[in-house]
Amino acid sequence: MSDVKQKSSNVVWHDTQVTTAMRETLNGHRGAVLWFTGLSGAGKSTLANAVEERLHQMKARTFVIDGDNVRHGLCADLSFSDDDRVENIRRVGEVAGLFVQAGVLTLTAFISPFRADREKVRAIVGENFIEVHCNTALEICESRDVKGLYRKARAGEIADFTGISSPYEAPENPEICVDTGSDNLSACVDQVIAYLQAHGVITK
Amino acid sequence: MSDVKQKSSNVVWHDTQVTTAMRETLNGHRGAVLWFTGLSGAGKSTLANAVEERLHQMKARTFVIDGDNVRHGLCADLSFSDDDRVENIRRVGEVAGLFVQAGVLTLTAFISPFRADREKVRAIVGENFIEVHCNTALEICESRDVKGLYRKARAGEIADFTGISSPYEAPENPEICVDTGSDNLSACVDQVIAYLQAHGVITK
User: What global pTM score does this model have?
Assistant: First the structure.
């Protein structure tokens, strides 16, 4: 620390700026959002976490935003009403945009069933938005029913359940479509990594 | 990509997890929030940006969250009413908490005049919350009046202006108190960096 204190209120302080490009250079990769969308049970979270693990092994800076870590925090004030679901996805999109500015490879795992909501996020994030459709058929998701949610939805115990009593609008032109219903996990991870390499997001 | 597709819906997918500790090891420093608080014109943003620049030169992973990049995005739906100001700081605290999980040294620059709000953020972020009081006297901030806001507040054109018509509750035990009214910028940056080194947040 400086021993000389300038006791003046007129000291001029100049603004500096660390830019996204500078952070990306330090990281050795671009910031981007991998937006995993698909039905409940399609494998979004599992795939997102597995892709993150692979990227971390490649020394990329990564973060997964999923329902659990926002529904209990940033979006704890939101219900599951239509309006609040829209707001939930909007906030996640805004946060993902901040992470991209920070140069982080950001992975999100939300059903995000409506095209309009996903397109809003694309508008927020810009060219660094990569939509990943976890394309597992409803029958397979329902037969897995890991959390028992489909059974409850069929029994009428959960209202507006995507695929049962509320629509899932599949992406029309996703950057990546993963056959999460049939492929093994490792093959799905390979497919996502290959996309990132082919598009210069990561260079290794 | 694998050429062999397992056409089975019973493929078992195991969850993996990249932890904050793993990200911190990769980064070579801990994730933490430097929460700069102080009056309008105290030098919060300028100091936060200058600290970020120094940390970036040291190859730390950094990000600054400031009013501009959340008021136009994540918090664009909020007004400047009392309730919405509280919500603004809450959301920023939650986002800062996510950045800490991502292993990032996160810097925020908000007046955040109320102790209760800052303590809420401390509760969200936990032990990695570092409160930095930019302790510039009101008279100095008002004499600088870089944005002309004090003049407008004195003229009654801005309601509830911190320091003029709304209180600023100074931190009682901030981790760092910076004499942003008298010290030169470089000395203030030195003081923050020295704190981070002394407390093992950064190791260089």
Answer: 0.91
- The residue among A2, A79, A31, A36 whose CA lies nearest residue A171 is A36
Catalytically annotated residue among B45, B112, B166, B182: B112
Whole-number average pLDDT of chain B: 91
> A27 and A99 in contact (C-beta within 8 Å)?
no
In a domain, B2, yes or no: no
B-contacting residues in A 12-41 (Cβ below 8 Å): 13-18, 22-23, 26-27
Does residue B112 carry a catalytic annotation?
Answer: yes
**Residue at A100 is within a domain:** yes
Contacts of B182 in chain A (CB under 8 A): 5-9
Q: What is the ipTM of this complex?
A: 0.91
Of B9, B70, B143, the CB nearest to A181: B9
Where is pLDDT greater, at B181 or B108?
A: B108
pLDDT digits (tens, 9 = 90+) for A26-52: 999 999 999 999 999 999 999 999 999
CATH code assigned at A41:
3.40.50.300
CB A64 within 8 A of CB A109: yes
* Residue of A5, A43, A98 lying closest to B13 (CB–CB): A43
Q: Which of B110, B25, B100 is nearest to B62 (CA)?
A: B100
